[in-house]
Amino acid sequence: MRVGAVLAAGCAAAMVFAAGSAKADPRTHDGFFLRLGLNLGPAFVTESYEVNGQSGGEDLKISGFSTGFDVLLGGTPVPGLVIGGGLLGVATSNPTLKQGDVEVEADGTMLLAGAAAFVNYHFDPTQGFNLQGLVGYGALDYVDSDGGSGGNDPTGILFGIGAGYDFWISDEWSIGPFGRVLMGSLSSEASAGGFTAEASEFYLYPNLGVAFTLH
Predict the structure, then answer these.
(1) From start to end of 19-169, where are the E strands?
(2) Which pTM was predicted?
C-alpha cells in the first residue's frame, strides 16, 4: 500500500507539472519527462537478526552481480527541474551468501522492487549534465530456481543519488550514461512459539548504465 502511495504521489506531481508545461522547446529540458533506464553493478546486503531482543549471531552477507531498470515519469515546473515518480527493480542471480567462515552460492534470484519520488536537475536546460535524487519504499525478495518465494519479505525506505549526461539524438529524445548509488534500510519480523525474530537489512547497489530520455 505504501509503495503505491509513493508512486501515486509522484505520478500526480508529474501530470500537474506536465500539464503546466505542455509546450516544450526543441533540445531543451522542459515539459513532459519520461526516462527508461538500464543499469549494471554489484549488489550488497548486510543482514542482522535479533530473537526476543537478543542478537542472533554473525551478520549474513549477500552479494552478487546485478541488473536493474527504472521507469520514471515527471514534469518540469521550471526549465531543467523535473519532479515525478517511478518504479525501480534490481535482480541478482545466484547471489553469494556468507556468514562467518561459511560461504555458499544460492540457486535463485534476489529481487528488489520499489516505487520512488524523484527530482532530476539539469544546470543548463539545453545541455546534458544532470543530477538526480530519489526517495521511496521497496521490498526485497528471494525467488528460488523452482519459482518459490520466502513470503516474509523485508520492506523499508529507499534512497538514491546519481548523475549522468544526456546526448541529444532528436529534438526531444536523448541518450547517455548514468551512474547512481541506491541504498535501502529494510526490516522484517516473524513470530512463532513465543519467539519473535527481527531481521534488519542494509541494501547497497552502486551501478552504471544508460538512460533513454524523452524531455
Answers:
(1) 33-51, 54-55, 60-78, 81-93, 96-99, 102-105, 108-122, 129-144, 155-165, 167-168
(2) 0.86
Contacts of residue 142, defined as CB under 8 A and 6 or more positions apart, other chains included, come to 106, 108, 109, 110, 111, 149, 150
Which phi and psi angles does 20 have, rounded to 5°? -80, -10
Residue 57, classed as helix, strand or coil, is: coil
pLDDT in tens, 161-196: 999 999 999 999 999 999 999 999 999 877 666 667
DSSP 3-state of 12: helix
Interatomic CA distance for residues 110 and 55, integer angstroms: 24
Does residue 4 register a pLDDT over 80? no
| Whether 29 contacts 215, CB under 8 Å | yes
100 within 8 A of 53, measured Cβ to Cβ: no
Identity of residue 40: L
Three-class DSSP category at 198? strand
